[in-house]
Design goal:
The longest helix is centred in the C-terminal third of the chain and has 20 residues, at 311-330. The protein has helices at residues 4-12, 22-34, 91-106, 125-130, 181-187, 237-248, 311-330; strands spanning 38-45, 48-54, 60-65, 76-78, 81-83, 112-117, 139-142, 150-154, 156-165, 169-170, 198-199, 203-204, 206-214, 220-221, 224-233, 253-260, 263-264, 273-276, 290-293, 308-310. It contains seven helices and 20 strands. Helices cover 25% and strands 30% of the residues. The chain is an alpha+beta fold. The strands form six sheets. The protein has a six-stranded mixed sheet with strand order 1-2-6-3-7-19. Strands 13-15-9-16 form a four-stranded antiparallel sheet. It folds into two domains: 4-154 and 263-330, Aminopeptidase (3-Layer(aba) Sandwich); 156-260, Alpha-Beta Plaits (2-Layer Sandwich), CATH 3.30.70.360.
Length: 331
């Protein structure tokens, strides 16, 4: 049967940064075709696409993403840890899903689909395209690093751009201008004073000030300043938007970006459960069935130079995916 650690290492060896996933898509497609899966590659953009592998349909779809954040970090097995870019987010998960599907089919279960998408780390164009496919599954088991816990839900997200404006002047005569940066510096810390919503399962709404841009030089009073915020939602977005508009008032301009709603997920008994603070492709895959979220590895090491997955946890996740699928198919 498929050795999940060897397969994960092969996937990790193939660079697949967001928008450059063609090589790993080709590898997995050939792997599945060799095992007699019906494989469709849905083109998302030039030389990259989603993989949909099916057999009987009408059952459970295992799904995760194949793209990674930069830079590419090749695999390294060190003790009981498999390091490399995508080890837990999410090529290790893809390998576990492939191995679990392989085992289920060998045991005679044909109601398994596989959906591997591109672009999750950069806008989820793959998931958006995949939701146009004629899916037949009743359940979608999405893979993200949940530390092998069944996710009870996940926070949503809201991008916010805050802008302040001033008037340029020579820095030797600041009284002739008006700084756009100084009012932004005063405003941003007060975002944490807002009485943002809480949820008994998902916890607190949180705000991260992730990016600030302003000015053109130290010798110029700055006329423009812009900050990008990420709000992690636990409830409906409308009251949060209203609160942020009121917070900015006439002190700043507000632009709202893409929103992903907070989610509740189906649970399979026998697993430890926990809410997740991050978002996934699940809200964009509504046609693929009732959603679940589960995967080996920790989000705390994803996107870091030392990203890894524990080898024993990775091996155990294969059996966990099989158990999840069998329970859902029996329901």
């Amino acid at each position: 049967m498929t050795d999940v650690v060897a397969l994960a290492s092969e996937l990790l060896a193939i660079p697949s940064l967001s928008s450059h996933e063609g090589a790993v898509v080709d590898f997995i497609s050939r792997w599945l075709i060799a095992r007699k899966w019906n494989v469709t590659v849905q083109e998302v953009s030039r030389n990259r696409g989603n993989i949909w592998a099916s057999r009987a349909g009408g059952g459970v779809t295992f799904s995760t993403h194949l793209d990674t954040v930069p830079p590419h970090i090749p695999p390294k097995l060190q003790g009981e840890k498999l390091f490399g870019r995508g080890a837990c987010d999410a090529k290790g998960i893809a390998a576990a899903m492939l191995a679990a599907a392989d085992h289920l089919v060998a045991a005679g279960e044909e109601r398994i689909d596989l959906l591997f998408v591109v672009g999750e780390e950069l806008g989820s164009d793959g998931a958006r395209a995949a939701n146009n496919l004629p899916a037949t599954s009743r359940y979608l088991v999405n893979g993200e690093p949940t530390e092998s816990r069944m996710a009870s839900g996940a926070k949503g997200s809201l991008r916010v751009i805050v802008r302040t404006r001033g008037r340029e002047a020579h820095s030797a005569y600041p009284q002739l201008g008006e700084s756009a940066i100084e009012p932004m510096m005063k405003l941003l810390p007060t975002i944490h004073d807002l009485p943002l919503p809480t949820d008994e399962i998902l916890g607190n709404t949180t705000v991260n000030v992730g990016l600030i841009r302003g000015g053109t030089g130290a010798n110029i009073v700055p006329a423009h300043c812009e900050a990008e915020l990420m709000v992690r939602l636990v409830s409906d977005v409308a009251p949060v938007m209203k609160m942020i508009k009121s917070w900015a008032k006439d002190r700043a301009e507000i632009e709202f970006g893409r929103t992903i709603p907070a989610q509740r997920f189906h649970i399979v008994p026998g697993f430890e459960t926990a809410p997740m603070a991050y978002t996934s492709d699940i809200p964009l895959l509504s046609r693929w069935g009732t959603p679940l979220l589960f995967g080996p590895g920790s989000i705390h090491v994803a996107h870091t130079p030392d990203e890894f997955v524990d080898v024993e946890e990775l091996r155990a996740s294969v059996e966990s995916y099989e158990k999840i699928a069998r329970h859902l198919l029996a329901s």
